[in-house]
Amino acid sequence: MRQDTQIQVGGGPEPAQDPHRSIHSETGARPGEHPGRSGNPLVKVAGLAWLEFEKPDLDRAERFYADFGFTVADRTPETLLLRGRQAAAACLVVRRGPRARFVGPAFTAAARDDLDRLARGTGGTVTAHQGGRTVLLRDPSGFPVRVTHGVPEFPALPERAPLPLNFGAEPVRVNATQRPPRRAAQIQRLGHVVLGTTRFGAALDWYLDTLGLIVSDFLYLDGQRDRGPVMAFIRCDLGSVPADHHTLAMLLQPRTEYVHSAYQLTDLDEVAASGEYLRERGYRHSWGLGRHIQGSQIFDYWRDHDRAMFEHYTDGDVLDATAEPGWAPLSASGLAQWGPKATADFTGTKDPGVVVAAIKALRDKDNEIDLPALRGLIKAMGS
User: Fold this and answer.
1) CATH level 3 topology of 47-154+186-380
2) Which of 124, 122, 144 is nearest to 133 (CA)?
């Protein structure tokens, strides 16, 4: 994920103003801009079901996942199923493969008939899968995307309740101390996945038209709003029922790839204490603690043995279907309301401006990256 280094206002930065004033996405679309939703989607998925990965060493993968906070739901010599504490299907499906890679996401259909509608509309086939039914699709970026229905859920597991906090003149915790344990997190559930793509415009429209997702926030390159967004935070359309600010986020970048996935914890202490636990075990910290702007989550990012990035978060925004997309410029200062500066490990480069300049120069009218033109740049960056 690559970002600008500062917001330019007029001829230069505005040091005397709140650096976040202009990057909260509270400004709506201008006439003619992307509406952020489809007028007639094929279906409306109900949620993100799980993510699929391949790993060459399942034993090593299991150690990281357990330390990160997943519970093993099932293990065979070839497959590892990992779950959260809430009642749901396994949120990670990890299969043995020749190399470490992200395979793709699976979404939950709201009704069994939606699978038939998807199959008819895309030329796909409804097949049996993990005790339920599925249609396997492929998005314009090349990721395989499952839509499932009827996959059995694992029952809820006991979990720590949020800690009672004393605020102001009405304390709720009297004659009692706070001693949150420094241990592996208790992941509650899968929250979202972020994907980078060289075909942002086509991929965005596909998820809106095919799966009925809707945009919560658009980000655009500073000075190029007229050329459209380069990042979108996208949620499920559940009507009047509030949904996570984003189930999927996508951004235009020189490579199509998994960026990170995020998993909900019960409160801030769980995020912080479990981060100390991971640090003590020698895992690679990528960025955090902080609070995001788009989505408002308190976040902390870590990498597994294969450098795949995973996020702990708590206290995210939820929106119903009436909330329209916000628009804001993409910038490094816009990644967080508070917390440390975004690291090179998180952004993927010590000079984010190089990549941003390349995207500005080499994206076409359809918001796609000219791959041949980028070969020299990627080689020069040592990627």
Assistant:
1) 2,3-Dihydroxybiphenyl 1,2-Dioxygenase; domain 1 (3.10.180)
2) 124
